[in-house]
Amino acid sequence: MNTVMPYTRALVLDDLPSSRDWLAQALQRAFPGIAVDSAGTLAEAFARIDPPPPLALIDLGLPDGSGVQLIERLRAAGDTLCIVATVFDDDAHLFPALRAGAQGYVLKDQSPQALADMLLGIAAGQPPLSPSIARRLLRHFQPIPAPADEPHLTPRETDVLRLTAKGMTLAEVSDALGLSRHTVSGYLKDVYRKLSVSSRAEATLEATRRGLVNPAG
User: Domain HTH luxR-type, which positions (predicted)?
Assistant: First the structure.
């Protein structure tokens, strides 16, 4: 049976008193008897991390900076479990926080009990993540489908464009593919039309941008 790590002390960093109370309530529900220290600014938080707390709930938007700075400081100093608690659910806030060392990311759109349940999941190795944040992370690592209007090149057109992108002349492409120069020229014209370009250089750049060919391949 899993047991929750006995966190006895935590730091809450949030500039809004109501949010600090909400986070402290969640911590008390998850870890009864935990001592909760609170700060409304980065400066106050920095003054309260000697020694570093075992657990910290950290907002990102603060009057004197970003909570990411506290995450970096805590992760460099020891083993503090840093969990972001914020209203920001965009990539511009999520990924810098994770890169800094945050081990959880929860949104302020739930009850203290819901957050407490997430914190209790730590014992089972479940990172505290709001459902929408977990979905965003999954989408981030999924391949991006090509737009519906992405021009389609036939396998032979792709071969011609790939060799052209390597700097091969029309004659060299013809020899490599066993085709006549006239046929290769026709394929290139079709490629120009599909990619809306007017030169082999432009075709190579456009194809590379769209991921159709790799000039270094």
Answer: 146-211
